[in-house]
Amino acid sequence: MLGVDEQNQAGELEPVQRKSTAAIVADQLRSAIMYGSLAPGSQLGEADLATQLGVSRGPLREAMQRLVQEGLLHSEPHRGLFVTTMEPEDVHDVYVARLAVERSACEQIVRHHRVDAVAELTGAHAKMVAAVAKDDRDGLTEADQEFHETLVAASRSPRLQRMAQTLLVEKRMCLAALVDTYPTDTQALVDEHKGLVDAIEAGDERLLLSRLEAHMNDALQRLTASLEQ
């Protein structure tokens, strides 16, 4: 029979340690980048950030290196760390990945989870309608993101949800830029999302995938044109 120490070495679970300070700081920096508080291209000053976050420079540097590895920050020799700017090719790649994930989610929804998905997406769509009614473009951006997160979650695929999660910050950066490219008639954007819900409700997979691709391509074209100006 294995002793206690031998059992632990054989894969026994042990108490989970508290989240490190560096991990907490990384979460805060990631969120600041995602929501635009740290804008693309902005430089990160160690002293100011350490004071603002109330941490020493050690955990802050570790946190920033994590974000460098994630591609959200980059280092410029003799200058320091900067928030990564999304170039047109980066935006294109994000949308290629988004379309692949959401297309697979739509296939699973139509084939297995149509009724539940319609109910969940109708609620998410209502938030978009409310934002347009209040002429709240930031609210519309949030509701837009929530709609697509709900779409992937409605697939009931943990792996698709994990893949979508890895794109979350970059997707949110795209959406933050996209808000300035929304058509004047934001009702058209709301109608596009309603069209996705209607196709799911009808169980028309071909129509759903066609509408999803058109929706993604339209957003990508507007974003790319904006970035190239």
Layout of helices and strands, plus pairs?
Blueprint: H1 4-9, H2 21-34, E1 43-44, H3 46-53, H4 57-70, E2 73-76, E3 80-83, H5 88-112, H6 114-133, H7 137-153, H8 158-166, H9 168-178, H10 186-202, H11 205-228
Antiparallel strand pairs: 1-3, 2-3
Order of helices and strands: HHEHHEEHHHHHHH
Uncertain stretches of 5 or more adjacent residues = none
Strand order of the largest sheet: 1-3-2
What distance lies between the first and last C-alpha atoms, to the nearest angstrom? 70 Å
Give the overall shape, derived from the CA principal axes: globular
| Distinct helical segment count | 11
Q: What Rg do the Cα atoms give? A: 21 Å
Instruction: Tell me the β content.
Output: under 5%
Structural class by secondary-structure content: mainly alpha
Mean pLDDT: 88
For the largest beta-sheet, the strand count, sense and barrel status come to: 3 strands, antiparallel
* Residues in helices, as a percent range: over 70%
Number of strands: 3
Structural overview:
The chain is mainly alpha-helical and 229 residues long. It contains eleven helices and three strands; from the N terminus they run H-H-E-H-H-E-E-H-H-H-H-H-H-H. It has a three-stranded antiparallel beta sheet. Helix 5 packs across helix 7, helix 5 (88-112) packs antiparallel against helix 8 (158-166) and helix 7 (137-153) packs antiparallel against helix 9. The radius of gyration is 21 Å and the shape is globular. The termini are far apart. The model has no long low-confidence stretch (mean pLDDT 88).
